[in-house]
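Late entry, evening session. Most of the bench is empty. Finally got around to the prediction I had been postponing all week. Sequence below, unchanged from the version circulated by S.P.
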Amino acid sequence: MWEEVVCKMAAVDLAFEERVSLLYLLWRAEQRRKGRPHRTLVHQVLHKREQFGEFHHLLQDLRLDDGRFQRYHLLSLAQFEELLSCVGASIARLDTNYRRSIPPAERLSICLRFLATGDSFRTIASSFRVGVSTVSQIVPQVATAIWDCLVDNFMAVPSTGDWRSIAEGFQERWNFPLCSGALNGKHVQMKAPPNSGSMFHNYKGTFSIVLLAVVDAGYRFRIIDVGGYGRTSDGGILANLTFGQALRAGTLHLPPDQPLPGGEDRGAQPHVFVADEAFPLRRELMRPFPGHLLPLEKRIFNYRLSRARLVVECAFGILSSQWRLYRRSMELRPEVAEKCVKATCVLHHFLRCLDERGAPAVRGVAPAVVEPLQGLGRVAANNSSREAVLVREKFMAHFSAEGAVSWQPKE
């Protein structure tokens, strides 16, 4: 090597001092190269992933106990395999000349474990014996694949027939006719992104992005939107959503207007969504009457609406209790947090659809019959169209007459 360098230097017209300096620099570079330890692409600890990593060591034992496997992943072994069959092709990666790729099953396991615990990427990386940067890439990639592969089958925009089926569910289980869903928002707490100012700062004094959802009578998410700034109100987020714009324009393909059960004399009424006082009153969007000292009919309406609206609150509670990612502030970029939230919502629907098709027994959910007319505090005033006010009054009269239930006051 040195002889080749000297020959090339001789062929070039260089001063003696320049040749000495160049040879000295080459000699120093060679000495540093020899004294430097050999660097590998993979850390020595990670080389033992297949012997001591959780996926290759612990999870193979958990496969023999479905209960423990489910507590680890929040999916049974059968559900895990079915989900893998849906997303496996999307998350698979090719081997290279330098290293073997992580198989789809292990990539899915890493993502589910993160969603199930909310642990840091460093903790997940240590458990599975992979790099922290590897986990930071796997989680958003797999979360995106879960959403893309499941959304069309489990959370597609409802058709007219789907809206009608949802309304039948609310009538049967919650005694609220012509209800196409319960609407509400949830603040998903996260660490403030750099240079974000007060955009993510909410009224609770924390930083968050907003999950806005429409839920059916079986606690399933039918329409969601994620990523609204925490400082924006639920009503303001709804106004900027495609769903809110379609609701105003009447392009949601809701079923045609029809009379309330037993109230044909009141005329045909629209299918509506039920929401709290944070949302505006519209023809297809019902909110409570404002005020403290309300007449009995208005109090009954507020109670019946609140009873139906509990569905979306319970759905958020089930989501948070199952996926412990929501139990702490997410230390993620907003775009990654959005992908994780969307993945948990579609997984929530996916798991409920794989369970028994009957009415699910949900732990921690308020019972269908609650004490009437309690917990109805003052709500804010709202300017609404005359048509929306008339629709609400028709529902109010229905709940106090032919639509009354046995446990509400009849004075």
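Two things to note before I forget:
The radius of gyration is 30 Å.
Strands lie at 179-189, 208-215, 221-229, 258-260, 263-269, 272-274, 285-286.
Will write this up properly tomorrow.
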